[in-house]
Amino acid sequence: MQKRTHQAQSLGSLFSGNIFGNHANTPVSVKPTAKPKNKPATRLEKLTFPELIENCTPVTAVHPFIDTTAFAATMDNYRLYIAHYNTMIKALNEETEKYNAAVRTFTSQNTLNEVQKTFSGLFLKQHRNAKTKEYNLLVEEFNTDRGMIIEKKKFHTVKYASEIVFQQIVYLYSLQLQKTTTEYIKLGISEASPVRQLEINAHHVTNLKRNGAFSINVTNTTVRAHRERLEEAGVFVDYLFRGHKTGLKMNISSQILVVFDAKTQKLTDTENQAFTSRTNKKLTDNNEVTRAFKSNIKKIENGQADFLEKGTPTAGFSFVFYKNIPEQDEKSKQGGGGENVKVSKTLSEKMEAAILNDQDFAEKLASGAFHNHKRVDKRYLYQESMYGTMSRADFKTFILQEFFKNASKLYRGKRVYIGCWKKAINAYAEKQFIVNNGGEPFLFNKQLMVDKLDEMIWRVNNAHKWFLKTKINPLFPSDYFDFSRTEKQEIGFEYTKKAWKNHLKYIENKPKLAQSVTKKSTIRKQNINHSKKFDIKINQFFKNRIELNELIDYVNTNLPSNYLQKLSDTLLKVSVTKHEC
Question: Whole-angstrom Cα distance, residue 449 to residue 443?
Fold first, then answer.
């Protein structure tokens, strides 16, 4: 019997079974069930050389992406694989040619009877559209019974055009992987599993565009023909058809496919890839926060802004997040075995080292050590939440201390006792970032903690502006951060949730407001333009350049209706003014 534990489980452990694909981690104790109808299976009858895909295991990863490096490695493996496959095809065609030479020798030396002529004609008519492998097997069977009278078909090599189609398919697959992996990350899944199947839809391939032009100018039929040729070569395996309204589901052979695992920051293992290039790829150690690591982040962050080159350490935050590799001293430049070799800490280790004891932290808060604190760059917090090794409990402590460091500015220039801060810290440690599920408390996902910290710091800044504006002193931390102070008159931090909700509504309605402002601006500029045109025509009329009928026609045709309504009044006013002058 499995032992029960009361440790908080990760959200990913609840989804340890593959919720997006057909692979699942099935316990050994489960009884075998009947084979499902729609199970992926490699169609061996389609493969020209079944031995090429023997002993191939699926590509597995935690958070797979196909970035530029993985894409290039996949295409390199494809070219090597196809070159080897075409060599085998040429050798097979040489044997086919020898067989056909024997057929031609037999037919030249022997006269075919009526039965052979009739049956050979029927055979060719019935099987002329069969695939090469199937057709040749039928030819061997027929010639064994009727004599050597029908030649075999020659196998076709994979042409360069198939590489272009394959490249487009890999690009579509990268988009499909990105959507699936994004959901994996949101759910907190941290167990490796086989990558999802590729969905091939010829219509999507032919409609890919680059800079407004189609990437490849081919028809759907051409794409299907190339896909079948690549399936014969073993590039696509595990065929699955689920109706004409959805695309075919297949896997790219593990000898070819390379993916980047965002969890481990490495490319997938290439032990199944027999066709590897001679130039090895050197992967950097991504546990260190260096410029090389930042350059990798730029490639995989879906077009987000680059990380800052340097940051500023703050009070109570002794380590440096953004520090580059230190320069070598004279001893390290001499070479040889160094003494007292120092290993640089990872980001997780530095964050753990920055956590203070509650009592020491409260004393520093009371002394005002964090009155000028600048928050940690949240991009590094997201990096730790997604790829770091800190436990949720330690990460929660770090986030709460970061919050109180930012809240310390509310009491700048005021005397606050240590006990007040200690009570506030204890209250937040007990209730913040915890959800009850069936009576058992669970900690938030680390990414949700970072999101919540953004909200809390915004509320602190909003409250700080309010206190400065109203000249009201905030309550002591033990009272101000009391969760029960939810009313406006109680002047508690919990009431700032209302300001946060209004802020979210403002952000939500901001596009509508911008659209309204743009519309009003357009109308206003049109009115100014119409007014100028109206004044110009009035002046032309009084200077005898146009007649009254021309003026009326112009206003009626080119200006809004309200200008025609006020035309007469305007003419009278202008004429009276000119007459008085």
Answer: 9
